[in-house]
Amino acid sequence: MSRQVVRSSKFRHVFGQPAKADQCYEDVRVSQTTWDSGFCAVNPKFMALICEASGGGAFLVLPLSKVWEIPDGGLTLPLREAIVTLEGHTKRVGIVAWHPTAQNVLLSAGCDNVILVWDVGTGAAVLTLGPDVHPDTIYSVDWSRDGALICTSCRDKRVRIIEPRKGTIVAEKDRPHEGTRPVHAVFVSEGKILTTGFSRMSERQVALWDTKHLEEPLSLQELDTSSGVLLPFFDPDTNIVYLCGK
């Protein structure tokens, strides 16, 4: 008789539990723009969601290009005046990310292939990474845990580790995945990054890299075959990476 061996894993029983109907929002028209994004942001108090609308720009709480202050008790009236308007990109903004440790520091990346770091308190751009750093569309940007570095993925098939204060590229990896579909990258624990992409046969892949040795991945795993881009989200409290896709 043969006995089936179950591979041991501490994540075997990690799963999501769908919320009940009375705890869900229904009939929300999420944006159908072609930008690969989660289209939402969540903190302990609020959820922001980008909605479908003619001409774009519609949102439930927070838009992409302005900063709003939400009262502790939530919204009782529509917000019509922004605290500050950040103007610097020449084309639409697709990525925004708050600095993990510094207050009022926000990063934005747009279709102009430019990354700006803002002082939200003054509304001024304090750092600029121009198209000489990213010659094509920026797919993803993520801060390191201490905020000293950012990792980016670009349409030119390169993943870059950048020190934003100096505007210098610390490390760079060409074609971390062999497929032609977009690559996304996030920092994870212990100075490593995780990337999602595709093989030449359109198989979805996830890879783990050491930022100091990007020649070969520490681990490369093929997941399935699908055309949907996988978006990685890292939870530093549990050291778990969540992957979601359209």
Automatic annotation (TrEMBL):
Keywords: Repeat, WD repeat. The keyword rRNA processing does not apply. GO terms for molecular function: actin filament binding. It comes from Nannospalax galili. The lineage of its organism: Eukaryota, Metazoa, Chordata, Craniata, Vertebrata. InterPro entries: Coronin (IPR015505), DUF1899 (IPR015048), WD40/YVTN_repeat-like_dom_sf (IPR015943), WD40_repeat_CS (IPR019775), WD40_repeat_dom_sf (IPR036322), WD40_rpt (IPR001680). This is Coronin. Coiled coil: none annotated. PANTHER family: CORONIN (PTHR10856), CORONIN-1A (PTHR10856:SF18).
